């Protein structure tokens, strides 16, 4: 069983957790109206898309979203997760706040997974550029820029638990500091993670910083945290190769819309110029089936999981419903 602090970190959302709940509950309003007498003897779940000039194909439209600190759930951490992604030949987005260095994640891969690296723009731009260079050298194929975290959202569960990493480090930052495990703030009641992130993240970033990142990165940039049509237009204008509709799993701004509620708006704004991905609220293949129809079949979704076996279990559940639901409802 997970320790309480780890369990609360994984499951909690920001403030009153209304966005966290809304991500899931919004699907209850989406109903499937099935067609009948259609030939569904052959179902193909393969998904292909391009990021800039780079083409990708995965066997089913499910990938692993970036989540931090996998070693709190599995002793092998992100190494176990990437092995699961390799077995399913799908996308794994490695968090920059992982407990395994990105080089070691790449080494644990058999080469069957599609590896992308999640990044923040840090106050020290050299750290940002160094992380990109390390990702390129390690064989990652895209950079996922998280833009919904200029500062860390207030997570009350982490505050109550005075959350900090037990016996672990921020593995990707060890060459920049001797010890990035932060002691919880006594006067603010904040978690160590909150203090660390707000000391490192740059709250002044804007669209010009995305333009800069596109110029310095040899890899395509996917912007994660887009929830509006106008921001989709700007992401394309400033060079993004893709966007991820995301509210950070309801862990940043509370009382925000659920991702499924804004997905059609973002897809219309993208208008096929860039791929649109989405995370948040997905619990089964039936959820995915409704999401893909809402997005006019242009989106992919991200499964949150840690470890080899959970990755397979999530995939098997999603793939089973992803195949059976179109068979029962496809036009």
TrEMBL record:
Organism field: Steinernema carpocapsae
Chain sites annotated for binding glyoxylate: 9, 120, 155, 248, 251
InterPro entries: Aldolase_TIM (IPR013785), Alpha-hydoxy_acid_DH_FMN (IPR012133), FMN-dep_DH (IPR000262), FMN_HAD (IPR037396), FMN_hydac_DH_AS (IPR008259)
The protein's name: FMN hydroxy acid dehydrogenase domain-containing protein
Family under the similarity heading: Belongs to the FMN-dependent alpha-hydroxy acid dehydrogenase family.
Active-site residues (renumbered): 248
Keyword Transmembrane helix in annotation: no
Segments forming domain FMN hydroxy acid dehydrogenase: 1-286
Region (Disordered): 298-331
Molecular functions per Gene Ontology: (S)-2-hydroxy-acid oxidase activity; FMN binding
CDD domains, per database record: alpha_hydroxyacid_oxid_FMN (cd02809)
UniProt feature, compositional bias: Low complexity: 316-331
The keyword Cell membrane belongs to this UniProt entry's keyword annotation: no
Keywords: Flavoprotein, FMN, Oxidoreductase
